[in-house]
Write a structure and sequence with these properties.
Elements: H1 2-15, E1 27-33, E2 42-43, E3 49-50, H2 52-64, E4 67-73, H3 78-83, E5 89-95, H4 98-101, E6 105-111, E7 115-120, E8 139-143, H5 147-156, E9 161-165, H6 168-177, E10 182-186, H7 187-195, E11 202-207, E12 218-222, H8 227-242, H9 245-251
Parallel strand pairs: 1-4, 1-5, 8-9, 8-10
Antiparallel strand pairs: 2-3, 5-12, 6-12, 7-10, 7-11
Helix pairs in contact: 2-8, 2-9
């Protein structure tokens, strides 16, 4: 057997045949950004991952009758980690975009969120992305490797003072400290902060236009060659929605629809 395995390794190395996915051992590994992303994915004090996206993962895995594990990885390295086969599915509120689809494939979307800019209620200035001059001298924050950061860099470089943060928690901390006037985020995700006592002084100031670069909703990312896994996930997502379990999970976290059209 060892000789056969060695021969197989040589063949793969010589002819570029892809090594088998981690899922080949019967376990599907779901990659989640290591930083907290409430209410979608948060690690509790015991080290267990919780949240809407985790509950959906559990429902999908139950539907597939599959054993699943969570692997946490830094957000800015999550696509390279998928391609390096450190896990099998990106399950971390990743927007499905044409640019990303050049590198990886996606499941069907499992939710949709507009993108927004949040600032202090006491700030009475009017911000309009169709009038970039309204952001002159304004400090605007976004998370690294995010579509919001790319959007702001394209639209407001040289006008606003753009600050890039490792996590959304870092964004909200600087907003509260007065070091940022506005922060960019997913509208659904930032709603969790706005509901908390520390978020009561803040509100959505701008809903960003749904440009093509923002994609087609959020879904699971898979390697292009893993078409069978993608199809299994899609069938499970459809079944979870059809059974009503998707809505039941969503109601535990949100009082509004997050699936969209």
């Amino acid at each position: 057997m060892k000789k056969l395995a060695l021969i197989a390794s040589v063949i793969m190395a010589t002819f570029g045949v892809a090594a088998p996915s981690h899922a080949a051992d019967g376990v599907i590994r779901f990659g989640v950004a290591a930083e907290p992303y409430a209410p979608f994915s948060v690690k509790d004090a015991s080290g267990k991952w919780t949240g809407w996206e985790i509950d959906l993962m559990d429902a999908v895995c139950k539907q597939m009758k599959a054993k699943c594990e969570v692997v946490d990885i830094a957000w800015d390295g999550i696509i390279p980690a998928l391609l390096e086969k450190k896990f099998d599915v990106i399950w971390s509120s990743m927007s499905i975009t044409d640019e990303r689809k050049k590198v990886i494939d996606f499941t069907d979307k499992y939710y949709f969120s507009p993108n927004v800019l949040v600032g202090a209620k006491a700030d009475t200035r009017v911000f309009d992305v169709t009038k970039p001059e309204t952001f002159k001298g304004v400090t605007v924050g976004a998370q690294t490797a995010s579509l919001q950061a790319t959007y702001l860099q394209q639209k407001l470089t040289g006008i606003a003072d753009l600050k890039i943060y490792p996590t959304l928690d870092d964004e909200t901390a600087d907003l509260q400290a007065g070091r940022a006037d506005l922060i960019a985020a997913s509208g659904i995700q930032i709603s969790d902060f706005l509901k908390k006592p520390e978020g009561q002084a803040y509100e959505v100031k701008v809903t960003l236009p749904q440009e093509k670069m923002f994609g087609y909703g959020d879904g699971g990312g898979v390697r292009k060659e893993d078409t069978a896994l993608r199809d299994r996930l899609n069938e499970a997502l459809k079944a979870v929605r059809a059974s009503g379990e998707y809505d039941a999970i969503t109601k535990r976290y949100f009082d509004f629809d997050i699936y969209g059209e």
